[in-house]
């Protein structure tokens, strides 16, 4: 209906200038609808990202609570174990490097470990 009205109007207006239009094609009729769908998709995507961030934050909070409880009941043993494992890993990585030739002994150089 709309394209027919536009076609008739253009044909009539072109006729006033002595032009004859054989065919009129209207493209991009759904631009507004496509833009609305794109905007709706972006809003839904943002909402999903918001939900994912909330769920992640809740999980991190629960993990922190569990760690705090376990530290309270079991002490700092796990932290010390992780510190030692990290120091071993760092020493191993440094030992593979050609640029490292000296690691001092008797000093506390890796992660504040007791000697």
Automatic annotation (TrEMBL):
Residues 2-61 form the Band domain. This is Prohibitin. It is found in: Mitochondrion inner membrane. GO terms for cellular component: mitochondrial inner membrane. Keywords: Membrane, Mitochondrion, Mitochondrion inner membrane. InterPro entries: Band_7, Prohibitin. Belongs to the prohibitin family. One of its GO terms (biological process) is mitochondrion organization.
């Amino acid at each position: 209906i709309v394209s027919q009205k536009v076609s008739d109007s253009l044909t009539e207006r072109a006729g006033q200038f002595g032009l004859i239009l054989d065919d009129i094609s209207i493209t991009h009729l759904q631009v507004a609808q496509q833009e609305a769908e794109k905007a709706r998709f972006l809003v839904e995507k943002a909402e999903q990202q918001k939900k994912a961030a909330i769920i992640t934050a809740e999980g991190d909070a629960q993990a922190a609570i569990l760690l705090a409880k376990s530290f309270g009941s079991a002490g700092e043993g796990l932290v010390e174990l992780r510190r030692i494992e990290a120091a071993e890993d760092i020493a191993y990585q440094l030992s593979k490097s050609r640029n490292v030739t000296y690691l001092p002994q008797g000093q506390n150089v890796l992660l504040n470990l007791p000697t």
